[in-house]
């Protein structure tokens, strides 16, 4: 019997008996539903996430443990109702094995009940509100929590001449997290927060808020704005002469996003931020990642969103391998918990208890690299293996 005939006979018999041989079952593709804001105000986030996920597949091959990995990208446009509907469709119609992406907190939260009901891992590659991982036991995060960045910044500031601060954040989950954890840590170190300002998430006009900061004249303004919004804020800060008036600009790394940093020009020089990823992170793994990302994307530089997607794909690949390509949702989830490896950002672990990421948070200053004339977030200090401070505080209560 020729091989094809033999296979045909087996398949026929299996179909007759209502069984699919396991070798055939494994040929079913492993589907990853990627929900991303590809259009609208947050399109830069979607573009970075998609590029990084595709780079990972390109570098590591699209067959893992006998399963062909298929990425299905959906544009959620940054709107939670659309994200929920698309997640539903991906689960029911496409029968995806994993949901991933989630460029904003409300999008990750919208899909969470579906992940729970369907027992499907939801890999949060971008959103940063600390409580997201509590919305479903199937959520695993590979981005960052805002308290990781904000609390690290709040420790540094009072040791560096900053005693009086105004906070200015986007008025939604990650902004409120950044504000609260900055205040708590900064006050405990003797700092004073004299005003807390919250600006709308959608189409913000920073000018009245910055004017208020200028009138108050603090030592520094601590800022959280989502990826993509930093350039407008920095421009207006300098236009108002706030830097010349001696007010320092500090924040989480969203402010000096690697994607947009060069476009900010000299205005961005000297801004200090704390975060988990810089394109200038000095490691061999990161150099390779940055070079490959730029090569595959017309010179575009990866930002902290990109590393969340790249590592998210790594976590998915490792879980497929660990379950030999046969794992259902709960088995994949179990394989992801406790995973530890060297990412281009530095060493990372998926906390087996919280499913959140444990990682280094770096302090960085924007500088111009004389070698290529470009602006970078240059790391000058590190807080190692930082667990999400929000969950740590809850545990200790
Ligand atoms: C979130 C979005 C961002 O663009 C960012 O930089 C950080 C957090 C969020 O919605 O969670």
From TrEMBL:
<dbReference type="InterPro" id="IPR028081">
    <property type="entry name" value="Leu-bd"/>
</dbReference>
<keyword id="KW-0732">Signal</keyword>
<feature type="domain" description="Leucine-binding protein">
    <location>
        <begin position="29"/>
        <end position="368"/>
    </location>
</feature>
<comment type="similarity">
    <text>Belongs to the leucine-binding protein family.</text>
</comment>
<dbReference type="InterPro" id="IPR028082">
    <property type="entry name" value="Peripla_BP_I"/>
</dbReference>
<protein>
    <submittedName>
        <fullName>ABC transporter substrate-binding protein</fullName>
    </submittedName>
</protein>
<dbReference type="Pfam" id="PF13458">
    <property type="entry name" value="Peripla_BP_6"/>
</dbReference>
<feature type="signal peptide">
    <location>
        <begin position="1"/>
        <end position="25"/>
    </location>
</feature>
<dbReference type="InterPro" id="IPR051010">
    <property type="entry name" value="BCAA_transport"/>
</dbReference>
